[in-house]
Design goal:
Layout (H helix, E strand, L loop, with lengths): L1 E10 L4 E13 L39 H11 L3 E6 L11 E2 L4 E2 L3 E5 L4 E7 L7 H15 L5 E7 L5 H12 L1
Parallel strand pairs: 7-8
Antiparallel strand pairs: 1-2, 3-6, 4-5, 6-7
Length: about 180
């Protein structure tokens, strides 16, 4: 499976940045390489994860609750239009999908391939982090990546459990296009 990734080109003479999607960089998940630093203890709960084990997904908060990202992963796994999804690993530039920000790389939390071949990328942010500058930059970059994908890729920033339905809306949008 191949994903078009964004690359940033700085034009020093104009002090501007342009984003280019496609052509220069495509990402492919290697079915034999998923270098998770640790494995989710409830990997068996998921039927559609691309790899046998889900990497780096917490199953319990310090207070004993189910983490919101885990609930988001369950929601993705339940969607009938999703062929498979990946818990995208942070700080793994060779093995994970990323977008270049102004200062570093942005590794969205989840990447899904829909049954119609289109790609859905989901970044989950808790409500406590949903309004900071970093979140704003990542959301703008993800939407620009979507816009430049010629209708093949979709990006959703989910900010808290009340916004999981944005994933369904993105899947519907992908089905229409």
């Amino acid at each position: 499976m191949s994903l078009s990734n964004g690359s940033v080109i700085s034009l020093a003479q104009h002090n501007t940045v342009k984003v280019r999607v496609g052509g220069g960089y495509n990402f492919v998940y290697d079915p034999n390489a998923y270098p998770a630093r640790w494995v989710c203890k409830r990997s068996g709960d998921f039927l559609k994860h691309y790899y046998e084990k889900v990497g780096e997904l917490e199953i319990q908060t310090e207070k004993g609750n189910t983490p919101e990202e885990f609930l988001c992963a369950q929601y993705l796994d339940e969607q009938p239009e999703i062929e498979w999804w990946v818990r995208n690993l942070d700080r793994q530039p060779v093995h994970s999908f990323w977008l270049q920000t102004s200062t570093d790389r942005f590794y969205p939390d989840f990447v899904a391939k829909l049954k119609n071949g289109k790609i859905l990328v989901v970044e989950y942010k808790g409500e406590d982090r949903s309004t900071n500058d970093d979140t704003y930059e990542k959301e703008r970059l993800g939407k620009l990546w979507e816009e430049r994908s010629s209708g093949q890729c979709f990006f959703e920033m989910v900010k808290g459990p009340g916004e999981k339905t944005k994933i369904r809306d993105a899947i519907r949008k992908a089905a229409e296009g």
